[in-house]
Amino acid sequence: MNAFDVLAERGFIEQVTDEKEVRDHLGRDKVTCYIGFDPTASSLHIGSLVPIMALAHMQRLGHRPIVLIGGGTALIGDPSGKTEMRQILSLEQVNENASALKAQLSRYVDFTGGRAVMLNNAEWLTRLNYIEFLRDIGRHFSVNRMLAAESYRMRLEKGLNFIEFNYMLLQAYDFYHLRRHHDCTLQMGGNDQWGNIVAGIDLTRRLEGKTVYGVTFPLLTTSQGHKMGKTERGTVWLDPVLTSPYEYFQYWMNTEDADVGRFLSLFTFLPLEEIVEVRKLKDARLNMAKTVLAFEATKTTHGREEAEKAWQASAEAFNLNPVEQGWFPSSTIPRDAGESAITAIPFVIVSSRRLGEGIPAFELFFESGLCTSKGEARRLLDQGGGYINGRAAERFDARITRNDVDGQGEIRLRKGKKRFVVVRVEEC
């Protein structure tokens, strides 16, 4: 698929310099794209996941990402989205943070075999001669246009110092440098970077006579207006030392109902056609989708083993019954990365041969795990608390047959209002 369509359908696209040209470019060419990450801390946080996941999608669709560590720009400080000046870091702090981020970003983007490139803009920015930079680069920038940029307008009321004012020039120079030396034609970033991206596009056109493009992502908040990655305990980091995999898992489990479908699109690699179905879910099935979101997000950031441990620890900590609370059993967690996790919900498999003979309802309710014994199953069904495809079972020994199988090859059993299991039928 065209990478632009994939990103747009999954909710990544906010602004684009020229939608038709960008789409044609991504459909026609193997594109080198880049996103910058300033090493202002030793770890990235959940708020950085949208650009990280966008790079991962670009790579999966055959394009080449450049992860640009802003070892040079971090010495200046990006004023974008800030009401006050960022803390000035020492060169030693920046270098330490840059090393940590390199290792962290390798979890999401594959740098082997030249499939992606990781660079540090300190390699060229710290070597610039100031007078030459002003003469050759600064003369192409209009102060009036710069002050009109959102990142600067926000700061003018409280004061914008000269060192921050240079940030746009440096980021624009990055794009020009990457186009010239790495054939990079697309810069992506948060929507607060729009002015900086456009400046880089203009500078490249003036200096090289080349056309390059820009795409921005929405600055995400939850449906309740809360900032992504912020909790009562503070920031949710991608570093397992700062935020444990268990805490990370819990953050996603606590996703607001209205955000589950959107977050599955943005923060997992699950197929969109399955994620669309999540918007129809309620109650226990929606809890299952939250579990899938938590598991997939934790697996991507910390690995499958840590995701499984976090899932198991969560179930034990809250004394949860997996089926009752909508947690999928560990035996159904997909082992193949290409296998859908949305379908990994509580289910049992029965043969069509057994259904041909008919299975007493109480036996199937017991085998499915909805009841702990056949006696409990009999009592449940006698009292009208057991349902087959949404209809109350008439008797505890009513035969469940092939006639109960729906068009998807399934039978849905439910106990009470929230506990249910899907019976999948296999031909044998």
- If you average the pLDDT, what whole number results? 84
> Which CATH architecture of the largest domain would you pick?
3-Layer(aba) Sandwich
Helix content: 40-55%
Question: Which structural category fits the helices and strands?
Answer: alpha/beta
Radius of gyration equals: 26 Å
The CATH class of the largest domain: Alpha Beta
Q: Which stretches are low in confidence, meaning pLDDT under 50 for 5 or more residues running?
A: 322-345
User: What spatial form do the alpha-carbon principal axes imply?
Assistant: elongated
What is the CATH superfamily classification of the largest domain?
HUPs
Helix run count: 20
Major sheet description: 6 strands, mixed
How many domains, in number, for the residues? 3
Compute the number of strand runs. Answer: 15
Order of strands, main sheet, comes to 1-6-5-2-3-4
**CATH level 3 topology of the largest domain:** Rossmann fold
Relative strand content: 5-15%
Spatial gap, N to C terminus: 37 Å
